[in-house]
Amino acid sequence: MGQEKNAPQTAHHEDDITPYTPPVPQAHRDEDQETAAYTGQAVTYVDEETSKKLFWTINRRILACMLGTYFCQSLDKGTLGFASIMGIKKDAHLVGQDYSWLGTILYMGVLVGEYPTNLLLQKLPVAKYLAVNVFLWGCVIACSAAAKDFKALMVVRFLLGIFESCVQPSFIIMTTMWYTKREQSVLTSLWYCMTGVQLMVGGIIAWGASHYLHHAIYSWQLLFLILGCATCAWAIFIGWWLPDSPMKAKCFSEDQKRLMIERVRANETGIQNKKYKSYQMLEAIKDPVIWCYVMLQITSTLVIGGLGVFSNLIIASFGFSVLETQLLNIAQGAVTIIVMIGAATLAQTTGQTILVMHAWTILPIIGTAVIYSIPPDHNTRVGLLIAFYCTQFYLAQGNLIFSMISRNVAGQTKKSTTLAITFVAWAAGNMTAPQIFQSGDAPRYKKGFTAHFCLYVLFNINLVILRLLLTRRNKAKRSAVASADAKTVAADEKITHAFAFEDLTDKENPDFRYVV
Fold first, then answer.
1. What is the pTM of this model?
2. How far apart are CA 70 and CA 74, in angstroms?
3. What pLDDT score does 40 carry?
4. Which end of the chain has less Cβ packing within 10 Å, N or C?
């Protein structure tokens, strides 16, 4: 064994686009010791019935916590949107682009926090790190009630962004740790669609708070206090209820832990590895597929971020009252949930995630064209509202991009680097998005919607490039296996998943196949 480890093996690759050609360097094969204690040498087959039982057992702990946490994040982040029509502009003396900057500064905080939080997530217990950050941002939201001017609101929004920066990366890590590739697209959509649930629930809460008038504090300050305290309570719960990994889950039996690990073996993305590997970091930076994800994040969030911050103002511009706009958030939330789960289910059923992403840009383009072309009045406001709901189809792109990253990137250091890069892009897009809607362009925001048309085109072009790259890599991997075994009929059928927990990158692992 000693001679084998020191053997000078190198993986050959011609460029950064094609995958590596076997053999895999022995030095790169590094199974995490905690994981190794449960995997052993032989592959354990988990039948479908057992896998389904384990799936629902995991959901009671993992999915429940992810749904609740993302709901809290969406609700807390969306308080600005609710407060925008509850008088915060007047009460905090916001003028010009001040309101847009409150949307932008949150993502500046995310931008600052993203890289260090991804490094810490590789080193620290995921669940405990998440719980601490949730508690801290709950405190920030509650303290926002004391912010009565632009400067104070900028500070609390910036801190909120820093503490919230860990949520999506944590969830992607947990999703790959606990769920199979087939399950991941729908699971990612379920926690991501909490954006829609928060619109429904938040709309009701904001509607109720809007009736709190002529008291010592403003209605929007009461909203901040309620949501901040509720978030702190939730953080304490997940710190107690959510396990850090299958290996450390005291709530499950030893046999359950072993089977939970084996059922995700076919993901070929591993579970954890706390050793930082510089070669994986460099591979992530040089990988053109990763930069496709970056461009998809930017071109999607520049649209989604603007619609999120300005949705209430856009709907109000159609001629609806403040209370009507708050209640219409319920319908908007329902549309968002249907759109997200529908996209993920279709992607799972067809096995064609990228084609579904193409299809889900059609209605947003039509809806944007209607809003751009038709002036609002009493006769057109219902039609314009429907057109605005059509633009909500684009929100599904966010969770589908997350699911592509979770399923198509392997190697723990490469994954943490990829998450850092792509979420910096995500933050940069969301940070810039509110600036697309200029106050001087209100209430029609025609220049902003013109920018959205351009972004739809760029998004689809990037999808085409990404599909070509991933298809080429899968073909190259199958060819490499077929050339090694002339009798191979279907290369994917020969996969043994022997490298599943060796912390190899997606390009290194000969058994890895990309989801397109």
1. 0.82
2. 6
3. 67
4. N
